[in-house]
Specification:
By secondary structure, this protein is an alpha/beta fold. The protein is built from 10 helices and 12 strands. It has a 5-stranded mixed beta sheet, with helices on both faces. A 3-stranded antiparallel beta sheet has the order 10-7-11. It has a two-stranded antiparallel sheet with strand order 1-2.
Amino acid sequence: MTLQQLYYAIMVAEMGSMNKAAEKLYISQPTMTSAIKELEKETQITIFQRTSRGVIPTNEGVDFLMHARQLYQQYELLKDRYSGNKNFKRKFGVSTQHYSFIDKAFVETIKYYDTLDFDFAIRETTTKQVITDVGILKSEIGILFMSDTNRKVLTRMLNENDLVFTPLIDCNAYVYLYKGHPLANEKSISLEQLADYPCLSFEQGSDSSVFFAEELLSDNEYPRSIKATDRATMLNLMVGLNGYTLCSGIICEELNGTDYVAVPFKEDEKNKNITMEIGYISKKHSIMSDIGKRFIHECKVYLGVPDDDFKDDAPSDN
């Protein structure tokens, strides 16, 4: 098994075609086919299923390609760092559910480093994609929450991707809405009071199961429901339609402004409040980078969580 074979397999998976991958790499299609066949022979698995429209990874192939990407990415980092490439930039990425405090922590992290030396990326995306991004090392850290509703399913997915969940903070449900909403001045709000208003939630693509929802109490039935894909649209819907969402109540006013309020959710016999455990996911047995440690530190600073292990005088990665 060679790094070249791994790279070929990665490119075939990305292009969905051996012919297209061969064209992109400026090699012949027979050479590509032969390399993949030799790789499959050595690994004793079928990495790709051949179809009339191209190739798709098998279940075994998906697992193999995940590890191949990890290995090849580490090789590229090693090569760039020690090849004398003066234009080399370290990469740091975070994939996250939609939390404004993560933006704040990301901003504070970037301030500590020289943007000339780093390529930064923050990806607000679906729950499943957060797990996938960290699983294939597209992002070093992922941010999501667990509760009694989704813990079993998410834990299984994390184990399948060789990931570990580390808690940051526990929160109960809050109703998040525009300050001009008729219920904005209530001390607490029940679902019965919200019946006449649309419940807003983040779309999870084809994975619309309650296990992947970002909002608390997502397994309840809501007579009025609207989905959005980004926070800006959701905030506009709160203003224009008196919509609301159920969230952690952790709102960054510095970035979101003061036009929105979080009111405690009032539980009843049928609709009990639940605890959401917000935390971060990372690769098992991996050593977190200095910039990753600082990002987690900035999250804890904003959340008011002690971080006794963090050394503020730790050297930066540049």
